[in-house]
Amino acid sequence: MKRIINKKKIELFRKELYKEEKKESTIEKYIRDLKKLEKYLEGRPVNKENMIQFKEELQDCGEYEISSINTYLAAANHFCDVMGWKDAKVKLLKRQKEFYESENTYLTKEEYKKLVLTANKKGQKRLSLIMQTIGGTGIRISELRFITVESLKKGKVNVYNKGKRRIIFYPEKLQKMLSRYGKEQRILFGCLFRTKTGKPLDRSNIWREMKKLCKKAGVKSGKVFPHNLRHLFAREFYQIKKDIAKLADVLGHYNVETTRIYIKSTGIEHRRVLNMMRMVIGMGNIS
Fold it and tell me: What is the rounded distance in angstroms from the CA atom of residue 282 to the CA atom of residue 287?
């Protein structure tokens, strides 16, 4: 059998991903990433040599971050697994561990407040409540469908994600605001954040609304995306609780190493702490 990527093999790969119970959005991401390899090969076979050249091409073009390159390679490797071409697989790129979050993506609590207040001022009540729900509970955007009228009455929500169940409690103020919103929108049962047809809101719609809002709020676009609100929640929770294991449970992480990524500070914040320590005494007249 020729090792050529074609429509038939791509569809076979799609079916296998479905059997693995991957989410539809995840499956589409795998397919898009695989087509990057298909385009590069232009009908040439999938073998070790061509895979290495593909990897080098991604590195040399200067267009992609290491994380993006690894995403393309992971999709290609998984495809090779499914096809039984394991000898063609390549190693992912090693990424140096970053101890600080980029100042260009670090969302502060003040900036978060600006976003919420601007949404309120512009009459975007649903968007304001979505941001406050993520910021106030640490819930994933994909888990917003679990925010239901029934859960609000209980004051807590059962979330099922990635094969794991966890309980998320509502802050009292958020619980009241969401209950009021449900009554105003005449939502008597089921998912609270929904489209006109009653389906849970799509993450892409929320992302676009937030991007439009950031200009009005005067917050840099690179800092404004739903998952960043979850990072902000994690940092605020950790500052009060100082318990990374508990935070991992709240966020639904299997590994605390993942949680550590969420509570990274910027280099500026680290320098501020160093200055507060006052461990540098000085040298006479030299300040």
Answer: 6
Structure tokens at 168: 């998320």
* DSSP conformational letter for 277: H
How far is residue 212's CA from residue 72's CA, in Å, rounded to a whole number? 29
CATH superfamily, with its number, for domain 109-270:
Intergrase catalytic core (1.10.443.10)
CA distance 99 to 110: 23
State how far the Cα of 76 lies from the Cα of 31, in Å rounded to an integer. Answer: 9
Pairwise CA distance, residues 43 & 40, whole Å? 9
How many residues in the chain?
287
Quick: pLDDT tens for 127-142: 999 999 999 999 998 8
Name the residue with tokens 């680290």.
270
Any idea which residue has 């989410």 for tokens? 23
Question: Which residues have CB under 8 Å from 71's CB, separation 6+?
Answer: 29, 33
Q: Give the count of alpha carbons within 13 A of 235, CB side only.
A: 20
> Domain residues of the chain, as ranges?
7-88, 109-270
**Structure-block tokens of residue 45:** 């076979």
Give me the helices (H) in 84-202, please: 109-121, 125-137, 149-154, 172-184
Distance CA 66, CA 70 (A): 6
Residue with tokens 């501020």: 272
Q: What is the pTM of this model?
A: 0.64
Domain 7-88: which topology? DNA polymerase; domain 1 (1.10.150)
Question: What would the mean pLDDT of 227-246 be, rounded to a whole number?
Answer: 91
Query: Tokens representing 164?
Result: 């794991």
> Positive or negative, the Cα torsion across 112, 226, 157, 150?
positive
